[in-house]
């Protein structure tokens, strides 16, 4: 298999794939990253065409692990030099990548992926072989998914120590807007409102403010790329949050009560704490109705641990 | 000194005061709590009149450590049985308590306090002698503050291992609305919006959602009491947050950018991380202009470590 982009995610993936016994090589645009990967004993190069031709000759699985802005150019190179290889990706938004894949004419060979792992650090040097251990790895179940490629992508995730959650692109994007992108916008908002109270307010801040603003410490460029790359789904989640907060504001002003928001929020957090994690078994990719059954299992919180 | 209410805060205060070498006794309405305190070797009773008469005979400092709804009745008892004792409190809102104190005719003998410590647990049994160690303890600086009583209250806080931040009631309430009550409302909102994504969304949730919703796990009654007890100041903070989020929603929808919110939020969080904690020295309670100087120091992030 072949990993295009050797940053935190791609670099960790190359390490984990090799440890799992796979023949895997990587590409990075930057010579420095390639040298760093080679110094650590990995097979890497900065000649994209050569890397893709090698993939094409062995029908290797290609993993796109570049930032969203570089996805189109990467897909164009794959379409030119390795059009018959199976392709997946690890980009944090799925709808936009699927559209780009379709524009590049590679939809038949593509199954999207998104490992829910990472930190605010970036680059080859911060990658680790265990980054995906017990992480959730979404594997796409859009209409027309090729069961053989789906199986390859799911096996890669499992080989890396992750568990697989099947989901359609739009479902994935809606979910991460709610549980990853909205939290960032709320954290930024809280940080600004607290800071507006000056040193007195910041000096009184304890756990609730510290935890509630933690991700506002992430690099603005990364937060913007995540949030703006998932605009449509994030707008839906943000509008829901605005309605909840606006209603709470009215209730507090008019009746003095915060009961509706506080009780619903507490019940919601309990459902998160007590969520039932269960294992998906007995669905064979390619058998009749397998895509629908995978999607349904993903919606109900199922995870695949073996295939 | 005499502690009225032996829950988490009052019970911890009684323990810490005794360890600091003070003669201290407590009152609690519940016989069971009184027995528990006595079993742990502390001087406690459930006869409020007897406890207050004893305070009156020794001019003891009285600490009100009951929930906000019980404050008026407690003040009425103090006014009847120990009207000449100095009085402080540890209630989490200050403006409302100051109003109740004025209604009870005890304003001359009162200096408010608020130790920024506690957990979601409650009752004598969860108290600890070290609850206030290195905690911030706000001591009130409203107009007309008696410097001798202020010094008594500040010394109590220091004896318990806390640092003292001087602030007026309204400033305190505005600050905690921003850094303690707004975080709760945002956490509830995030919990509901994430949960609306169903098991798929909750199953993909990682650090940003977990941290951003943590305080939504607090008991709704406690969250409501805090937030609703500080309504006016919380409405100001909530309106600011709504404007920030509303503007961000418009910008994301119209231009696709989250730059304004994300960059301001990141800068604000950095100011929180890098806040300058400095020690207040050289202000003697009672000397000319001491109240103004204390307030100014509190506003600029100063803390008193000795007196």
From TrEMBL, chains A, B:
Q: Where is the signal peptide?
A: none
Q: Which GO terms describe its biological process?
A: tyrosine biosynthetic process
**Pfam families to which the protein is assigned, alphabetical:** PDH_C, PDH_N
Q: Which UniProt keywords apply?
A: Oxidoreductase
Gene3D superfamilies xrefs: 6-phosphogluconate dehydrogenase C-terminal like domain, NAD(P)-binding Rossmann-like Domain
Q: Which organism is it from?
A: Rhodococcus triatomae
The protein's name in its UniProt record: Prephenate dehydrogenase
**Family, per the entry?**
Belongs to the prephenate/arogenate dehydrogenase family.
Keyword Ribosomal protein appears in the UniProt entry:
no
PROSITE patterns this protein is in? PDH_ADH
Tell me the ranges covered by the Prephenate/arogenate dehydrogenase domain, including all copies. Answer: 1-282
Name a GO molecular-function annotation: prephenate dehydrogenase (NAD+) activity
